[in-house]
Amino acid sequence: MDSELAERMLRDYDAKDPGTVFAEGLRLTIPEAFDLQTAVTVLREARGETVAGYKIGCTCEWNQRANGINHPVWGRLWQGEQFASDASLKKSDYVNLGIEGEFAVTLSRDIDPDRVDEDTVLLSIDSIFTVIELHNMLMRGEAPRGHELIANNCIHSGVVRSEPNPLPKDTVETDLAILFDGEVVDSWDVLRWPDEILQAIPWLAQQLASRDVMLKAGDTLLTGAFGPPIPLGAKATVEVVSSAFGSVIATFE
Fold first, then answer.
1. Are 68 and 192 in contact (CB under 8 A)?
2. 222-233 confidence digits (pLDDT tens)
3. How far is it, in rounded angstroms, from Cα 135 to Cα 206?
4. Any idea what the CATH number is for the domain that residue 122 is in?
């Protein structure tokens, strides 16, 4: 992957103007898009940043179709972009800030990609969180934009997480709701733990293994949103609430 392209991508991200090269007509294959995401990762690590884990995106078929792909996507989480509940953040640090509500887990041990299934994943989880995922909702190229999404680290720009919750001993059904300034903007009545929430993690482990990366103890994994990111607009307070796994809140000025 062209190092100058990766350097430009990182400069644009730092300048809160991500992905300008796609406005100039850049098109990549899906492997090339992941290569570019990885090249930017190398640059961020070289300047002292730390990967905190991974996110899974486009788990729903309708979202895959919208981006011209037939599989989920994944991106990196960065330690400097992790926030605790009650965080006060600035909208100016993001571009057209978009919000997803979902769940995240932390790993208690490494996961062998050659021996991974949902049971193995479940035994490897330390705790579960309700999270607010932050996005820079800006896509510049012509559709389909799956390659642009991936190269831009799945437009991910941070996570606000709840207090950790111990794992349920049995199957649990939970609801999930996203609220802006106290009003529900999206919700799901029945989501099942563990199968529905953890189902994409074996795929993630195998995808990372193809790039010689292993899921490690301590990694945080965003397990996949159930709807599209929602622009925050003029709203100031975001809360994501789960009856089984608690709530997380953040304010934006």
1. no
2. 999 999 999 999
3. 25
4. 3.90.850.10
